[in-house]
Structure formats: C-alpha cells, structure tokens
TrEMBL record:
Residues 92-271 form the FAD-binding PCMH-type domain. One of its GO terms (cellular component) is mitochondrion. GO terms for molecular function: (R)-2-hydroxyglutarate dehydrogenase activity; FAD binding. It is found in: Peroxisome. It catalyses: (R)-malate + A = oxaloacetate + AH2. Catalyzes the oxidation of D-2-hydroxyglutarate (D-2-HG) to alpha-ketoglutarate. Also catalyzes the oxidation of other D-2-hydroxyacids, such as D-malate (D-MAL) and D-lactate (D-LAC). Exhibits high activities towards D-2-HG and D-MAL but a very weak activity towards D-LAC. This is D-2-hydroxyglutarate dehydrogenase, mitochondrial. Belongs to the FAD-binding oxidoreductase/transferase type 4 family. Its main location: other. Its cofactor is FAD. Homodimer.
Length: 515
C-alpha cells in the first residue's frame, strides 16, 4: 500500500536531535569552507572585469592609526583578509587592505564620518553569504564587518517583537526567539552564517515567504547609519505607524548602498506546535503546478512552505553528500510541502488526505510525510544542500528569477538545449510558492563560450515574461549591468537620485546595484 512508506517513516523517529545538530554543523562548515578556501582563488575582479576605480582617496597609515584608536587594535585587521575579500561563490575578489569591526552604532557612525570626510570607499559586510558579489570589495574598499554587533537585545513574548543587532547570525536569533515560544519568520539555507542585517539589506526571501511574507512586512523598524555618519533611528514597536514616509523600506533590500543597518525590530510569529513535512515525487511540471494549487486550496491556513526540486538538482545533492537520506528517489520532480499549525492530529489528517488524494488522481507518484522533528530536518537538509552541492566542485552560473507560474520551468529546458554538453548540470529548484525559480548552470570551470550562451539570454527571457531578474538575492555587482531588464529608465534614474541624496560622495558599496 502506498501509504505504508509514510507510516514507516513516521515510526522511525530515532536520532532526531543528532540530525538537527548535524544540520547546523554541515551548513556552517560548508559555508565557511566554500567562502574561505585557499584553493583556486579567483583573479582580482578589478583587473579581470576592467573596473575603473572610483575617484576615492587611498587608505594611508594615518587612517589606520585613527581606526585603531577608535576601535582598538584587535578590531582593525590588515592581514589574512581573503575571507573578507572573496565572495561566497568565489567569483568576485576584491583587494581591500583593511577590515574594521565596530562594536557599537556609535563606532559605525564614527567610521563612516571619517570615511566620508576622507572620501574612502566602504563595503558593509555581514556573513558574506550573498550570491551576487555585493558583500565584497571590487577594488580596495574598506570592509566594514558587522560581526561584533551580534546581540539579541530583547524578545517580547507578549507582542512577538524582537530587537536585534544587525550582526546577529540568523540561526542564533531564531534560537533566542524559540526560547520565548516565537520563531523568526525567515529561514534559509545559509542561516548558520548569514546575519540578520545582511538578510534585511538583501530583503532575503527563503523558504517561508509563502506563509509570512517578505521582510518588508516583518521588519517593524531599523536603525541605519548614513554615509555622513548620521544615525537614522527608524525603530518602531508597532505594526501600524503611518507617520509620513515609510523610510525603513529604503534600507530593506538596498544592499548596503544607502546606509549601514545596525539594529532592527522584527515581528516574530508564535512557533507552531505542529510541523509536518511531505516530500513527494511527481512525473511532470504540470503535476507540480496542480499539486501546488491543491496545496493552497486544501492546506491553505497551515501551509508554511512549498518548494520544488527537479531531478538533476536532487541527484546532484544526493551524489555529492552521502549523509543525505532521501525517503524516495527516481522521479523527474520533487516537492517539499510543509505545514505548520497548532493541532497535530488535525494537521496530520489534512496533509495525509492531501497526499492521498493527489496519489489517487495520479498527480503524486509517491511520497512521505513526517511530523518527527529529526525527520523533518533530514528532509529539509536535502533541499538546503542543493545550492552547496552545485558549487562544491564546479563553477556555477546562478540565476534567481521570478517567473509567472505557468512558465516557471520552461526556461530550464530551454537552457539545457542552449548549453548542450558545455554544461555539466542545468537544473531548476526553488520557492515555487513564491514563483521564484533558481536556475543553475554548472560547468567544470568558467568559460566564455557557455557564459555567452547563458547571458544575457536568461535576462531577456525573464524580461519577455515580465518576470524579475532578481527575486531575492539582489543585484550586487554581478547583475548591475542587467538591472534595466527589470526596471525602466525612469525608475533607475530615481534610484540614482536617491543614492546621490543619501550618499553624495558615493562611498557606500560602490560598483554595486547601479552602474
Ligand atoms: P552579506 O553577504 O555579507 O551581504 C549581502 C549584502 O548586504 C551586501 O551588499 C552587503 O554590503 C549588504 N549588507 C550586509 N550587512 C549589512 C548591513 N548591516 N547594513 C547594510 N548593508 C549590509 N537568499 C535568499 O534570499 N533566500 C534564500 O533562500 C537564500 N539561501 C541561501 C542559501 C545559501 C547556501 C547561501 C550561501 C546563500 C543564500 N541566500 C539566500 C543568499 C543571501 O542573500 C543570504 O544568505 C543573506 O541574506 C545574506 O546575508 P549575509 O549576512 O551573508 O550578507
Ligand atoms: C536557495 O533557495 O537555496 C538559495 O536562494 C540559494 C540558491 O539560489 O541556490
Ligand atoms: Zn532561494
């Protein structure tokens, strides 16, 4: 009987906390290794991409002495800077000679005041897990690392509002929220390394947007330091606050180009008592779509995630990481559907019924459902390891696009055809519930031939379908030449004007977002 598999999995509840622990270690270690590996360093981007250095001053000994006096010598780094200069994908490499680690908003303000007066360029950096080259210098910008601003300042279990410093690691923040019975409404594969300030600055999406919406809704207030050192206090403890322009939104997703986020308040929902995950195999993308529509219709109020993984993405992760434990295999498409609610029996009955109905109609070929926390983590790990598997041994062109659902997957087939044997893997996965596809094209190493087949085609294709060329990762350095595919010239000009107003000397994260 088909459901036998489901029941078996539910009964096999052993090793649940071990699995949770493994998840954290694997993700943190993998992200660190990938970010700082000394092998195969990329060329300096300024040289390889012929970047004209902006009209900035050059750092001198007096500047370094000034910063040492301000922060203390321990928090001013001038050696072993590769981990700060090289992006997570090992695609962008800057040549910064200085990393500053302020420990308070006042110190961030003093740093920026000095840099603005001296016209020294600065790149704000969180966990350096960004995927568009936004978090590393392009030339010799000073790296302003938020690592030391890492405290959760308060978590109020009555209001659900947490106040946190920008450099707090997402997973640590979530652990603190959980102690108060709450959850951070944002979850993503890089949670063990990324900072909440980095998440806000990229308006990171992740796997629960379908339930909680994006950060523009959850972030109630921000504190940001402007290029001239002024502290802009936009903190708020209320969901509703219509006092003039909603300026906090400018710092959500502006990728460190308008200010440095130092603190924020976030509305955290109550943690769900009952979480179930279904991992199902399907035959076609048409069946994936039908299943998504049915999930919305029948799981509506408890649906908390709806992810899709195609066969090639699944196989790449499974082939790369032997510790992954997949309950099913051998299908063209997989979906991970999560429910979160308050009544375990009710939620399980609903999700079992949903899977059973889908199987009867032949839309779902096989699947497992589990509410066991360890097994839930094991299934999530399959999804989380896909991006790491794709870059572990290969060069990977990564695209993060919003597409209308009916055309969601067609670009993967088209791209496979265009790349032919030049690519080792062309695959699609991502946040189906938000119409956000991650199209990935891997090859042994970067080469111009495949690059030209992929870009700008991928952006033209997306633009023709009125999609977005960046659903969640942002524009950074890698996509700035393509911004016009998603934003019209009038909008781009207003963005430029805003940038000039906030940062007249252009010291904050130059060479990013705008040309
Ligand atoms: P960084 O990479 O350090 O910086 C990102 C940008 O924000 C840069 O432009 C930087 O200058 C700026 N910045 C950082 N901190 C500040 C600050 N305090 N003030 C002003 N500017 C700042 N993204 C998603 O949206 N959804 C996902 O599901 C997702 N999954 C991922 C999975 C993996 C394995 C990896 C490696 C990345 C993933 N990402 C995802 C991409 C990335 O956007 C997120 O990891 C995260 O939001 C970046 O946070 P960070 O602290 O690492 O920021
Ligand atoms: C994800 O959803 O896994 C991330 O956004 C990373 C990626 O695009 O690979
Ligand atoms: Zn994503």
């Amino acid at each position: 009987m088909r459901f036998q598999g489901l029941l078996q999995l539910r009964r096999c509840a052993a090793a649940s906390c071990a699995s949770r622990h493994l998840n954290t270690i694997v993700t943190a270690a993998a992200t660190r290794r990938l970010a700082s590996s000394a092998t195969a360093l990329p060329d300096f981007t300024q040289k390889s991409d012929h970047v004209q250095r902006g009209n900035y001053a050059t750092l001198n000994d007096k500047d370094v002495a000034h910063f040492e006096q301000l922060l203390g010598q321990n928090h001013v780094l001038t050696e072993d800077l590769d981990g700060y200069n090289i992006c997570f994908l090992k695609r962008i490499r800057g040549n910064s000679k200085l990393v500053l680690k302020p420990g308070s908003t006042a110190e961030v303000a003093a740093i920026l005041r000095h840099c603005n007066e001296r016209k020294l360029a600065v790149v704000p950096q969180g966990g350096n897990t960004g995927l568009v080259g936004g978090s590393v210098p392009i030339c010799d910008e000073i790296v302003l690392s938020l690592q030391r601003l890492n405290k959760v300042l308060s978590v109020d279990e009555v209001t659900g509002i947490a106040v946190v410093e920008a450099g707090c690691i997402l997973e640590n923040f979530d652990h603190r929220a959980k102690e108060a019975g709450l959850t951070v409404p944002l979850d993503l594969g890089a949670k063990a390394s990324c900072h909440i300030g980095g998440n806000v600055s990229t308006n990171a999406g992740g796997v629960r947007v379908v339930r909680y919406g994006n950060l523009h809704g959850s972030v109630l207030g921000v504190e940001a330091v402007l290029a001239n050192g002024q502290v802009l206090d936009l903190m708020s403890d209320f969901k509703k606050d219509n006092t003039g322009y909603h300026m906090k939104h400018l710092f959500i997703g502006s990728e460190g180009t308008l200010g440095v986020v130092t603190k924020l308040s976030m509305l955290c929902p109550h943690a769900s008592k009952s979480v179930n995950v279904a991992f199902i195999g399907l035959n076609s993308f048409a069946d994936v779509l039908k299943t998504f529509v049915n999930a919305k219709r029948n799981l509506g109020e408890i649906l908390s995630s709806c992810e899709m993984i195609d066969e090639r993405a699944f196989q790449t992760a499974m082939g790369q990481y032997k510790f992954l434990n997949a309950p099913i295999a051998g299908y063209p498409f997989y979906m991970l559907i999560e429910t979160s609610g308050s009544n375990g029996d009710h939620d399980q009955e609903k999700i079992n019924q949903f899977i059973g109905d889908g199987m009867e109609r032949g839309e779902i070929l096989d699947g497992t459902v589990t509410g066991d926390p360890g097994k839930v983590q094991e299934i999530w790990k399959i999804r989380e390891m896909v991006p790491l598997a794709l870059i572990e041994k290969s060069f990977c062109f990564k695209y993060d696009i919003s597409l209308p659902l009916r055309d969601f997957y067609s670009i993967v087939d088209v791209m496979r055809e265009r790349c032919g044997p030049l690519a080792t893997v062309v695959c699609g996965y991502g946040h189906l519930g938000d119409s956000n596809l991650h199209l990935n094209v891997s090859c042994e190493k970067f080469n111009d031939e495949i690059y030209k087949r992929v870009e700008p085609f991928v952006y033209e294709y997306t633009s023709k379908l009125k999609g977005s060329i960046s659903a969640e990762h942002g524009i950074g350095f890698l996509k700035k030449d393509y911004l016009h595919y998603s934003k019209n010239p009038v909008a781009i000009n207003w963005m430029r004007d805003m940038k000039k107003m906030f940062d007249p000397n252009g010291i904050l994260n130059p060479y990013k977002v705008l040309n």
